[in-house]
Amino acid sequence: MAGEGEKKPVLEMVQADGADEGCVTFVLHNEDHTLGNSLRYMIMKTADVDFCGYTITHPSESKINFRIQTRGSIPATEPLRSGLNELSDVCQHVLNTFQARVNEFKERQEEPME
């Protein structure tokens, strides 16, 4: 366990002894359904993923057990990495679009009324 001065890792990788790299459970600390469901959706769009799902261990705990199983010899870390990158890109696009519309609205408010 982490001591008082040490920080817990945000992401842990849990793998059964003898299991291949294509079948891994990731533990995401300080996260909830917001990231879990969005990330699961992004990862399931990948053709090489057989299974992707998550559970929240208990409502009072803020951690997710996130399971990924892939086809062939593709390690489960690859779809996780690409899913996180794609989700980040989508969030950035939403933020940019929102900010552009807010700026357009503010500009219209500053124009004199006829």
UniProtKB/TrEMBL annotation:
InterPro entries listed in its UniProt record: RBP11-like, RBP11-like_dimer, RNA_pol_Rpb11_13-16kDa_CS, RNAP_AC19, Rpo11-like
SUPFAM superfamilies found in the cross-reference section: RBP11-like subunits of RNA polymerase
Keywords: DNA-directed RNA polymerase, Nucleus, Transcription
GO biological process: transcription by RNA polymerase III; transcription elongation by RNA polymerase I
All residue ranges annotated as the DNA-directed RNA polymerase RBP11-like dimerisation domain in the record: 23-96
Subcellular location: Nucleus
GO MF annotation, one: protein dimerization activity
Classification via CDD domains: RNAP_I_III_AC19
PROSITE patterns recorded: RNA_POL_L_13KD
Primary location class: nucleus
GO CC term (a single one): RNA polymerase III complex
Any Pfam family matching the protein: RNA_pol_L_2
Family: Belongs to the archaeal Rpo11/eukaryotic RPB11/RPC19 RNA polymerase subunit family.
Protein name: DNA-directed RNA polymerases I and III subunit RPAC2
Organism: Gasterosteus aculeatus aculeatus (three-spined stickleback)
